[in-house]
């Protein structure tokens, strides 16, 4: 589900950030910026309600599938990706763009060959931090896919088991379930920690090297 949410949110986030930094002018850009600001502050349960309503209207109230949870997580991820990519693109010196234009390179090619390559380290870091932000969400998953005891790899059909919901369910049951809930919480913390470490390593690897 997290992988599907990433596949949905990252292209939308990167393209939106490119529009805001490189093309955005006037009322439309201000409207997009305002909409992103609003999305950044929405509670996670609202993202779950949006995904639930969307798929209920499309497929009926009985439909439950992992794609519903992925859509809810993508709603939460997208503004984080937009903001992080936007900041990275603004850090790219204008001199690099002007040098590319002076060689006769088109603006679109300059963006994809020069600007994005220069900012790739920060973009990857922002994406991984966005993943870490949503990987522990429980409320939207409870609302969209509910509770499942079995592992289901089909994203388009049937409920799917997730670590956050598993921890919530086990804690509700009490007894040995509390220990299992703490175990699931530990696994989530380790996953988030690993993602943060990877983000730092990638950022350091792609950082500009100073020649002496």
* DSSP helix fraction: over 70%
- Number of β-strand runs: 0
Q: How would you state the average pLDDT, rounded?
A: 86
The gyration radius over C-alpha positions equals 20 Å
Annotated CATH topology? MetI-like fold
Counting H and I runs of at least 4 residues, what is the number of helices? 10
CATH architecture classification: Orthogonal Bundle
Main sheet specs: none
Number of self-contained structural domains:
1
Distance between the termini: 46 Å
Taken in chain order, the helices and strands follow as: HHHHHHHHHH
Structural class: mainly alpha
Per CATH, the class reads Mainly Alpha
Strand content: under 5%
Morphology: elongated
As residue ranges, the low-confidence spans are: none
List the helices and strands and how they pair.
Blueprint: H1 2-23, H2 26-40, H3 44-59, H4 66-91, H5 94-102, H6 107-118, H7 120-134, H8 139-144, H9 163-173, H10 176-206
Helix pairs in contact: 1-4, 1-7, 2-4, 3-4, 4-7, 5-6, 7-10, 9-10
Structure description:
The protein is mainly alpha-helical and 212 residues long. It has one domain: MetI-like fold, CATH 1.10.3720.10. Helices cover 77% and strands 0% of the residues. The chain is built from ten helices and no strands. Helix 1 (2-23) packs parallel to helix 4.
């Amino acid at each position: 589900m997290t992988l599907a949410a990433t596949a949905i949110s990252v292209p939308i986030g990167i393209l939106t950030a490119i529009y805001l930094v490189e093309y955005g002018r006037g009322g439309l850009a201000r409207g997009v910026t305002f909409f992103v600001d609003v999305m950044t502050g929405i509670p996670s349960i609202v993202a779950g309600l949006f995904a639930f309503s969307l798929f209920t209207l499309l497929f009926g109230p009985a439909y439950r599938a992992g794609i519903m949870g992925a859509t809810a997580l993508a709603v939460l991820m997208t503004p984080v990706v937009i903001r992080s990519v936007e900041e990275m693109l603004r850090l790219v010196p204008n001199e690099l763009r002007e040098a590319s234009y002076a060689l006769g390179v088109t603006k679109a090619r300059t963006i994809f060959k020069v600007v994005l390559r220069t900012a790739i380290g920060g973009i990857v870091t922002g994406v991984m931090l966005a993943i870490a932000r949503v990987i522990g969400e429980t409320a939207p998953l409870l609302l969209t896919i509910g509770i499942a005891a079995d592992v289901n790899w089909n994203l388009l059909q049937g409920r799917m088991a997730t670590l956050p919901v598993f921890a919530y369910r086990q804690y509700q049951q009490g007894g040995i379930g509390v220990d299992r809930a703490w175990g699931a919480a530990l696994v989530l913390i380790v996953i988030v920690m690993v993602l943060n470490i990877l983000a730092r390593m990638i950022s350091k690897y792609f950082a500009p090297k100073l020649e002496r």
